[in-house]
Amino acid sequence: MVIRSHQSDEPAVDLEIALAKVCFIIIKGREFEVKEESSDDDSGSNPVDDAELDVLEESPDDPVEEEITSLIDELTVDEQIDLVALNWLGRDEDNTATDWPELRRQAAEAHNDRTSQYLIGDPMLPDNLEAGLAALGLSCADYEEQHL
After folding, report:
1. Which end of the chain is more exposed for a tag (fewer CB within 10 A), N or C?
2. Residue 10: domain span
3. 64-67 long-range CB contacts below 8 Å, 24 or more apart?
4. Do the domain assignments include residue 85?
5. Domain for residue 68, yes or no?
6. Tens-place pLDDT, residues 13-67
7. Residue 103 belongs to a domain
8. Which residues of 42-55 are buried (b: 16+ CB within 10 A; e: fewer)?
């Protein structure tokens, strides 16, 4: 899909990944980033008795992490490249839509089969993706309104 930035002098950006997929990853990433390191690894108690607090702790088989990883792994190579480039675009507040072609080229050169692990390992992923979209004149506001 070709996206026009809201600044008329900015070039059109050709994204291979759908905005809805990026927004979903941002939402899931926010769920993942609120998790805390496990404090009771050997707990055998009932989750109801613990006020369901274990759901906010990291675990080796975290379903949110598995969901994000699976989604990223199922993306096409071009979609994964866009996701990495959006992450990089949003990492530096000085980046604009004019930086997109170079960042996407670099992401394509760096692409490998560990994209999901790389992105999941970035604690700022949701913020970076959101800022990357904003640099392109895009937002998840409509998506979040419909899905939250």
Report:
1. C
2. 2-36+62-147
3. 64/28, 64/31, 64/32, 64/35, 65/32, 65/120, 67/28
4. yes
5. yes
6. 889 999 999 999 999 999 877 545 555 555 555 555 555 545 444 555 668 789 9
7. yes
8. eeeeeeeeeeeeee
Output the CA–CA distances (angstroms, integers) from residue 90 to 7, 38, 69, 96, 133, in the order listed.
17, 30, 20, 9, 7
The answer to pTM > 0.85 is no
The tally of domains found in the chain comes to: 1
**Residue of 24, 56, 29, 19 whose CA lies nearest to 40:** 56
Residues with Cβ within 8 Å of 126's Cβ and at least 6 positions away in sequence, in order, are 25, 26, 27, 29, 30, 33
| Residue positions counted in the chain | 148
* Residue matched to tokens 């760096």: 110
Residue 41 lies in a domain: no
Determine how β-strand 12-14 pairs with β-strand 2-4. Answer: antiparallel
